[in-house]
Amino acid sequence: MILGCEQNLRNQIEILMIGRFEIAQQRQLLALLLVLSASHAPAAQVISPAPEIFAPGVISTAAHEAAPAFTRDGNTVYFQRSSAVQSTILVSHRASEGWSQPEIAPFSGQWNDMEPTMAPDGKSLIFISDRPVQSGGKAIKSYFQGNEHIGGNLWRIRRTDSGWNPPEHLSAVVNFNTTIFAPSVVADGSLYFMSWNTQTNHFQLYRSQYRDGVFSAPVPPSFSDGQYSDVDPAVAPDESFMVFGSGRVPKRSMDLFIVFKQNGAWGEPIWMGDTVNSPGSDAEPRLSPDLKTLYFSSERTLPIAFPRSPEQAKADLARLQSWDNGNYNIWTVPLKPWIDAHSGSQSLNARAPKY
Question: Which of 15, 124, 197, 208 could form a disulfide with 119 if both were Cys (CB 3.0 to 4.6 A apart)?
Answer without folding.
Answer: 124
